[in-house]
Amino acid sequence: MLESTVTAYVDDRRARIEKRYSAKKRGKRAKPVGDSIHNVSLQEIRDQQEEVITETRQKEEKAQVRTARSLVIQEMKKIKEEWRQNKEITVDGVKKKASWSQWLEHTGKDVEYYSMETQRSTMHQMLTQKPDSFIIDTQLPAEVKEAIHNASYAPKPLSAMDWTALAGSDDSITFQLDRAPADEEEEEEEEEEDDDDLPLFEPPLMQIPSSPPVTASSPRLPSLPPEPPSTPCPIRPQHHISGIQRIKSIITEARAAREASPGG
Fold first, then answer.
1. What percent of the chain stands above pLDDT 70?
2. Is the full-model pTM beyond 0.70?
């Protein structure tokens, strides 16, 4: 009885697991992604194959040019070695040593040698020539011209311009042609008000010794008489005086009072 119960439980569990795995899984189909490296179209594969074939053909052509150039250089070396071994030529029955150009002209090999020199120079240019890194296309497509025409009659040309018509363009740029929001203006005004509320820093008064130093028997400075009362005037805003200017004015007043005293 126990064995049959366990066997039935195991069989039922196995059947439910198999049913679960064999069920169709919805929403799991692979979808192509635009920037995925595995998403390659048939046209891209063909273009890549054409690039590989073109590159291989160019390498083979350059190898053939190098082989032909090496053969030309060997023939030129042979002619020059022949001149080095025998530089003597006979002119009007007289033997004399000739220069390289004279020897070529006398032996009639100047045309052959200069022709090989021209071939070598041409093949050298073919091997060292580099393709243009970029091409500037100054002709606008018809779609771009139409987009410019339509945007020129719109209320906001920059916003109405269709930048997708340009090859390799990015239309993710946003042009903000309106005024800044009112919240930003209020924040700027609050910052200016906070700057106005800042207190001005006034350094404390410092007692600086006089020059020359005051002796113990020096007379005291006379006290100034009080000013007579006058009609109060409206208070005018005074300019802020820095601490250094205030100290200088105190020293100047002290010296003037000391000189005006009888013992000064």
1. 59
2. no
